[in-house]
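Inverse folding, one chain.
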């Protein structure tokens, strides 16, 4: 059993950079809080694992192989393995990211 508190306020600031806070790192799954400032971007790229992003705070444009989608607070997006993925925040944002490995 692991107990977690103050995950959103725990480390770092959103301002000016991307800050990834790993919560759980296991063989088949990684869970992290990602804080990303408005002026930052994760450029579109493929990855060999599936990933789920849930917007805790803020909003962002998510790029996929099929176009772009605006995702806002309390909404989520899922990428299959090898799918193109990118994130461009519309404001300082906090995401929950879950990577799923085969």
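Residues assigned per position:
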């Amino acid at each position: 059993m692991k107990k977690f508190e103050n995950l959103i306020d725990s480390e770092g600031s959103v301002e000016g950079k991307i800050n990834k806070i790993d919560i759980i790192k296991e063989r088949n799954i990684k869970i992290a809080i990602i804080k990303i400032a408005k002026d930052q971007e994760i450029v579109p790229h493929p990855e060999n694992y599936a990933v789920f992003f849930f917007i805790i705070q803020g909003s962002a444009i998510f790029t996929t192989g099929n176009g772009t989608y605006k995702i806002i607070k309390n909404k989520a997006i899922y990428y299959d393995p090898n799918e193109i993925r990118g994130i461009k925040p519309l404001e300082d944002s906090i995401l929950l990211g879950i990577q799923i490995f085969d």
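The mean pLDDT is 91. The radius of gyration is 13 Å.
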